[in-house]
Amino acid sequence: MIIRKKFRFEGAHIVRNCTSPRCRENIHGHSYEVEVFLKSDHLDNGFMVMDFVLLHNVAEFIHSFDHAFTLWDQEAQEVKDAIYCINARVVEIPVSPSAEGYALLLYAVINQIISNALLTNGERNVKLHAVRVHETKTGYAEASTDDLALFLFRFDQVKFNSGITAEWKDKSWWNQILVQE
Ligand SMILES: [Zn+2]
Predict the structure, then answer these.
(1) For the chain, where are the E strands, in sequence order?
(2) Can 67 be counted among the known catalytic residues?
(3) Which of 89, 98, 103, 124 shows the shortest CA–CA distance to 13?
(4) In angstroms, what is the span from residue 40 Cα to ligand 1's centroid?
(5) How many distinct structural domains can be found in the chain?
(6) How far apart are CA 114 and CA 112, in angstroms?
(7) Residue segments in the chain with a per-residue pLDDT below the cut of 70
(8) pLDDT at position 63
(9) How far apart are the CA of 81 and the centre of ligand 1, in A?
(10) How far is the CA of 28 from the centre of ligand 1 (A)?
């Protein structure tokens, strides 16, 4: 059975090297919707694949991008310096922040968060099935496990600045991700 939880965030970016000049040459933002699909061949004691309350670290991760600038680590240094100068909240990532890049990044990290989740109510074989990132009302990109081969990166290449981490209730979920490289 497949279950889905939807998250939202308001994010800013530039998508370098894309076809549209508006997207590649301008800082702009989107109201993102992220759909997280989980799958299991088993139901827990509450007849659930997994209670959504167990996705609190997924929520913390996705909401880290809210009202933040998502910065590709291949940006020119002067752009990076300007972004860090004017934004309190910056996430620097190894993939370009296209919807596809987000889907890939979110799939990889959420997959690890789900693997780390403490499951004590009879949940079994819970897998991340897919992550779908809607950048607009009409378009989305979806990543699943086979897509991880599209671009290889390490989790320590994802850098949340202090404006973001200072708002985390608990930092252990991200430290757990980093030690599992
Ligand atoms: Zn855009």
Answers:
(1) 2-13, 28-39, 68-72, 90-93, 127-134, 140-143, 159-160
(2) yes
(3) 98
(4) 34
(5) 1
(6) 5
(7) 181
(8) 98
(9) 21
(10) 6
Determine which one of 92, 100, 123, 135 is catalytic: 135
> Tokens 């608990």 identify what position?
170
Q: How far is the CA of 99 from the centre of ligand 1 (A)?
A: 8
| 23 among known catalytic residues | yes
pLDDT of residue 180: 77
Q: How far is the CA of 27 from the centre of ligand 1 (A)?
A: 8
Short-list 97, 63, 61, CA closest to 79: 97
Active-site position among 60, 67, 75, 142: 67
Residues 85-121: tens digit of each pLDDT? 999 999 999 999 999 999 999 999 999 999 999 999 9
Q: Residue 140: which CATH number?
A: 3.30.479.10
Q: How many residues does the chain have?
A: 181
Segments forming the whole domain that contains residue 101: 2-179
Give the pLDDT confidence score for residue 32 in this predicted structure.
98
pTM: 0.97
Is residue 18 annotated as a catalytic residue, yes or no?
no
Tell me the β-bridge partners of 128: 38
Cα 26 to ligand 1 centroid, rounded to whole Å: 9
Q: Which of 132, 100, 97 is nearest to 24 (CA)?
A: 97
